[in-house]
Amino acid sequence: MKSIRFFAIAAMLLALGGNLQAAPKKITVAFYNLENLFDTEDDPTIDDEEFLPTGKNRWDADRYQRKLEHMADVIAQIGDEDGPEVLGVCEVENRKVMQDLIATPKLRDRNYDIVHVNSPDGRGIDVGFFYKKDVFTYLSHRALNVSFADEPTLKTRDILMVKGLLKGDTVYFFVNHWPSRRGGAASDGKRKAAATRTRGVIDSILTQSPNAKILLMGDFNDEPTNESIKDVLNASGNEKELKDKQLYNAMWDLKQAGRGSHSYQKEWSMLDQMIISQGFLNKKSKGAQYVKKSANIYEADFMKETNEKYKGQPLRTYVGPKYMGGYSDHFPVYLQLK
């Protein structure tokens, strides 16, 4: 009798273990503003003078390497110990710094590839896209230029759209870094222009494929409740009452809870966001699905200020002219798919 009971328990544990092993790994999609990831070489076509060995920031090889390793330390831990399968970034100078980043010891074995385009931004900072080649199959990409009717000569970062296959289904990723808030309310129209450009392309996709899977990520320099996001982009935080073609802002609840990805004068803002189409919420559709309540901010203690005055805020590389040797002025955001 004891032997029968033993074998019955063993069979049950074996079956349970098999089921646990069969559970598919969740896919982490993240975004990180790397805050001025410049190399040390002069590019005469952009304004990179501050980030040169002879420039104001004394940006030499040691500081550059430390910055790369710090960014890699963060990226390697976003979501889980494997790091994100898909990662959008902004404030990168060029493709070279992206290549240097994934060549660091923490990331070199993660099987990342790169999508990058040079933006017309005067500072020379671009958006970029990393993906693990064994998870995401790249198909194509497109740079969406943003123009301003009232300032036709003004240049800003392109929006990068990457199309590929994830879990056997077509997915569209949009990596954004919208115009800054410099100038106060007068700058609102610039972000609305970026939202209009993005929304136009999204509408074209949804017209052809109403259940398309679209994921927007980026530093939008606006809150989930601002007009550019809520009205122009048409992104809501109410998942249960989404209207036709309306997007779901996965960061909405975090914002309502008082959290943020960026701090200015000790006030937190949710400038970095993850926004998805309803295709990720439709349980009947094939391919990747959004893991509910998985949207979050990665804010480990090692990335934070310990100084009593600024405790808990992002530990930056520079504060004004002072070199801090930190990370970024933003925390990364992420969500998970299954």
TrEMBL record:
Organism encoding this protein: Flexibacter flexilis DSM 6793
Signal peptide: 1-22
Domain Endonuclease/exonuclease/phosphatase: 28-337
Listed SUPFAM superfamilies: DNase I-like
Protein name: Endonuclease/Exonuclease/phosphatase family protein
Keywords from the UniProt entry: Endonuclease, Exonuclease, Hydrolase, Nuclease, Signal
Highest taxon, organism lineage: Bacteria
Gene Ontology molecular function, alphabetical: endonuclease activity; exonuclease activity
